[in-house]
Fold this sequence. Notes:
The chain is an alpha/beta fold and 574 residues long. It contains 13 helices and 23 strands. 36% of the residues lie in helices and 21% in strands. The strands form four sheets. Strands 8, 9, 10, 11, 20, 21, 22 and 23 form an eight-stranded mixed beta sheet that branches. A seven-stranded mixed beta sheet has the order 1-2-5-3-4-7-6. Keywords: Membrane, Transmembrane, Transmembrane helix. Residues 1-24, 531-574 are annotated as: Disordered.
Amino acid sequence: MSTPPPDQQPDPQPEPTPQPDPARERRLRTVGRHAGRLVTGLVLLAVWAVVAVTVSLLLFVNSSRESVVAGHDAVVRPTLDGFAVVRPGAVLPDLRMDLDSPVGVEVALGKTEATSTEELVQRYAFIASQPDAQIDKVSDLVVDMALAAALRGAVAGLVPVGLWLLVGQGRRRYLLRRGVSWQGAATVAALVAAGVLIVQPWQGDPLTTTQAQDDADDWQSLDSFLEGAVTLPAEVAGIEVRSDVTTVQSRRLVESAISTYEQSQTFYSEAAEEAADLELRQPEEDETVVVLVSDRHDNIGMDPVARAIGDAGGATAVYNAGDDTSSGQPWEAFSLDSVNDAFSDLDRYSVVGNHDHGSFVGDYLGDLGWTRLAEGDIVEGPGGSVLMGVDDPRSSGLGNWRDEPGLSFDEVRDRITEASCEADERIATLLVHDAALGRDALAEGCVDLVIGGHIHVRSGPTAVEGENGEVGYTYTSGTTGGAAYAIAVGSKPRRPAETTLITYRDGRPVGMQWVVLQTNGRFDVGEYQPLDYATTDPEADPTAPADPDDPTIPGGSDAPEAPEDTAGPEDDQG
């Protein structure tokens, strides 16, 4: 068959025009919308992050907190130079230490209570020998400022994002068109000019001494500052000192502080290590042990020792019988921070003593998480026991009882007796500062054990048969701080320092054991004394008071005789 010529071939049929696929187009539009929203979301997220981080950093480095640090009213400020800087004032040199961290801190010390610069410097050295509580306190303040700044920055970052979403697409296009006009440019220029007038950057602040010293960067090592006069402990070798004409005159004070620091750290560190290896009576499976501390009087050096004794005896709770301070003033918060740091993971119960004047000590310990037994409170105590306590009325911190102001020592004793005898359950332990507050409750047979301190000399445990035939015990602990008088700050205890372990079984105190750290660093450990509620025969009772001539008793035969009632309003030695 012949092929027709090209001009006679039929025209090719046109390709059919593809018909639009509505479903496909809908899918493409949906994908486009999702992609656009994703890009917009990522851009808004980036804007939020940039604004949040910028604002957070600005707020953080300009934050400050007022607190009590190292016995001073202090202002704590974070920095980004990686140093911990302490500014103690005009007399003593500034100190700093590299934290090996991008975040640093500056602590400016203010008002405090001290009778002399020498006393102040010795206190610094003593606190520095047990620094953990103060370090934790400052660290918590910095973390708190960082969290607050981050929260505010996160909220600030939402502002531009929220405005973008609130304005809407149509209004954004309108504002863009207006922004590129001469009216928009004039508006922006006016806003910038108003901001400059408000900030007035040309004014500046007068140059301060601190800023001038910062610019001079005249830091030197502590060893160079002391000109090699003393051998520095390894812990302080990294400290740097800012020296000028005034602070050079303080070199002798710093040398004295280094000596006190080294002696304190050596004595108490060795004591804590030795206490951990003491052979103490161990609790049975059904028993609970509590460590009792009393009359610390600011001796933070004994806190790790008392904790080591508690750990060696299996203690899971702590009783604080008061007189943590010498005057109850806020500058003594370092003492409360220390005892809390030592026992922070145990169940903690406290009353305040006659030297803890005012409400500061009790409120501060309560804020730190201690169970406060201020006004005859009854709570569940260690080992399922019933615990009752009351603050010493000679401290103005008591203030009132059931809204009745001005109660005397005898009146509080009457109230505590009435409350203990009317309690739904028998009181296993009455925690007071002065055991004389529980005398009548024991006499009526309403309490198993009354524990206190105050007179700085151990007494008991002594069995007392109540009017109802029930037997109870009274026990007075020696001073845990080794205090001769109202303050125990020093490179070692001023007198024997005592801690007591109390054992509970079935909700009752069933035994006690005391541990004494002598001023020469020797430990004396008392025999475990069971508390027998079935007899009060002194000849058969192994818990009869110890011989006052026993040299292991704090103070030995020279110890003052404990009075029956120490409620005298002028007693200020306990």
